[in-house]
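step=encode ok
step=design start
structure_in=
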């Protein structure tokens, strides 16, 4: 598991496909609007049936989870001031929670991803796009 931070804030949490630990492990703080956990249970383990209660929550920023089903993708991280910070490469089976700051992607291979985020989608109000070329990023 890798946590990417900037100025003391969690920007992303990466769970590699090789991650393995018995039981339940939550990677996110309780106050995150998107919660991310890993679960590994033995055969026969029962999880008691349950329903989720209606609780009003306030979401201030979109946090999203990407599951890399197939391929390789480079994730570029940016500060909220749109300054490049660092990059990491995700591969088949990896999972990432994008929690804060900016991010962009380059598909290094044909890639299939599943995206999970809070809704409802706010359209153009949901994000601010900006330009950053690979040469500016000084990576490849």
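sequence_out=
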């Amino acid at each position: 598991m890798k946590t990417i931070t900037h100025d003391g804030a969690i920007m992303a949490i990466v769970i590699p496909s090789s991650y393995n630990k018995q039981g339940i492990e939550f990677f996110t703080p309780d106050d995150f609007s998107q919660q991310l956990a890993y679960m590994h249970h033995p055969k026969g383990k029962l999880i008691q049936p349950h329903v989720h209660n209606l609780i009003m929550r306030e979401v201030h920023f979109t946090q999203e989870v990407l599951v890399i089903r197939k391929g390789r993708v480079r994730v570029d991280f940016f500060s909220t001031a749109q300054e490049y910070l660092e990059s990491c490469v995700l591969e088949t089976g990896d999972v990432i929670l994008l929690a804060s700051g900016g991010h962009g992607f380059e598909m290094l291979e044909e890639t299939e991803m599943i995206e999970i985020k809070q809704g409802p989608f706010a359209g153009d109000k949901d994000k601010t796009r900006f330009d950053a070329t690979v040469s500016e990023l000084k990576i490849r």
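step=design ok
step=annotate ok -> The chain has one domain: 2-42+59-119.
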